[in-house]
Amino acid sequence: MPRRIIGAWLDHADDGRATAILLMLFVIAWTAFQVISYTSLDLHPDLVEVYAWSRHPGPGYYKHPPLGALMAAAWFSVFPLVEWSFHLLAMVNAAFALFMVDCIAKRYLSGDKRVLVLLFLLLTPFYQFHGQRFASNQTLLSTWPLAVYCFLRAYESRRFGWSAAAGAACALAMLGKYYSIYLVVSLPIAALLHPARFAYLRSPSPWVSILAGVAVLSPHLYWLATTGFQPFGYAYAVHGGATQAAILWKAVLYLLGAVAYVAGPIIAWLVMVRPNRQTIAAALWPQDPDRRMLVHLLVLPLLIPAVTAPFVGVELTSLWTMQAWFLLPVVLLAPAEAVVSRAAAATLAGAVLIVTLLIVAAAPAVALMRHWDGNKEGRAYFAPLTDAVSREWASATGRRLSVVIGDPDLGAAITFYHPDHPDSVPGFSLATAPWVTPEQLLRDGYVAVCKGDDGPCRRELAARAATEPDARIVDLAVTRTFFGETNLPSPYRLLIVPPQSGPRSAAVSASLTGVIAGLDPAIHPASNKAFLRNLMDGRVKPGHDGHRDPGRTS
Which residues of 90-132 form beta strands (DSSP E)? Predict the structure, then answer.
């Protein structure tokens, strides 16, 4: 019976209904897993940071371009501000990525192979696990296949609409993360390697794409030029500065780890197709120039980062390849020589279904294990700490909480979990949150928060307390109870600064000039990389971009 059901589902591959059913089940199953398995923890710092930015939609932020925050702002204008909604956003983004891959696949494949493309991708951790942590990296899951699809249509048709769409989609990818420059560079190289390159170059298509891309990027480019290119300084402060030997070694690990990430679909292809030398050659170097372009578009964004890393001076991590592998199943399955039987396709579909159901069923146990094991970010304590901050602030002022400063992760978490949703300032510099002004701090007061063992943060908090005679320092510890199990208490230090008014405001405003100096590009020109290095001296942490632990999935 299950095999007949799967067979009936595969019969609808060509009309798209099989894809629609797969994506619907994907969103339902993996949203349920994320919601249940993370009930013992609060949201990842990446997510609450994106939410904190989304409260002030703009052309850019000090760490990253704005697409993730803009997507979150649009999402939460419709959906409620709760944890399950954030998990749903992440899975819908991943499902849209898979949908765009299907749009590409149906141009080259039909029948069972079209569905197998998505099943192969579900054998990687990118869409279910890494896709859950919605942030700048995750926006590339959906924007890269969108850009490639539009580019392929533009290259084929030379039509104005598709050409403009290709440029706009590439700009969206850049607005997700600057790492997309490797995709943007790969597209014209792939076009030049195609035999029809001169027909394409003589048409208006590439120039329409360029104009559309620049138009979409222009607000962000203006923001970059007028704010001292802050994200570039942040990127180099976090991922740069290593020796050439270290960068080269990281590039090697990047390539090895990248291949390891896609071991699942490669093994499945070898088992199901049992390719001979002719089949492998037809897949990796096809005679058809259009399919050979797919190989170029797969390989170039993977290799260019490794080749250019020593010149750019940035250490790579294999996790950054997660959005670049989407063409692999299309390349492997496109040759006519790659024959897959219905029985093999049904077996893989059944295996993916069974494994998914088992993982979802294990979600409560995973939640309990996460409660026992804890985590590096202290996510078990975000909501309890927010409750404690709320009580202390209400007791001291009886006013709405407007601003939280100090530890970046804790501040963003309080922004999400506190009912007032205060603005958060990463570190103690308003350069990281220009929508917060010294006047707002004086008028509304604020809370500074540090982890109990964070020496640099506590020293800054003490220096701030010395300038605030009406403030008080609060030391506290919070715990979390899950299924009757209470974890170890975690200590924190708060500085409660009540609202100020009267003659003192002028003196306090003068004491904040050092805080807002970072907003002036004349003081910190674009070439001064030390600005963000000093800005982040242990308080603004490395962005949670997977750099610290590439193997993490949560």
Answer: none
